[in-house]
Amino acid sequence: MMYSILASKEMLLSKVEIYDTTLRDGVQSEDVSFSMEDKCAVALKLDKLGVDYIEAGWPGANPKDKRFFKRIKDLDIRNAKVIAFGSTCKPGSKPEHDNMIKALINARPFGVTIVGKSWDTHVKSLLKCSLEENLRIITDTIAYLKGLFPLVLYDAEHFFDGFVANRGYALATLRAAIAGGVDRAVLCDTNGGMMPSMVADVIRSLKQEVDVPLGVHCHNDSDLAVANTICAVSAGVDHVQGTINGIGERCGNANLCSVIPNLNMKMGYITIPKENMQMLVEISRFVDEIANLSPNKHQPYVGESAFAHKGGVHVSAVMSNPITYEHITPEAVGNHRRILVSEQSGKSNIIYKAKEFNIDLSKGDTTAQEIVKIIKDLEDSGFQFEGADASLELLMKKAMGTHVRFFKLKGFRVITEKHSDDVDPVSEATIMIEVDGKIEHTAAMGNGPVNALDNALKKALEKFYHRIEDVELLDYKVRVISSSKGTASVVRVLIESGDKKDNWNTVGVSSNIIEASWMALVDSLDYKLYKDTRDHNR
Question: Can you spell out the DSSP letters for 377-427?
Answer without folding.
Answer: HHHHTT---TT-HHHHHHHHHHHHT------EEEEEEEEEE--STTS--EE
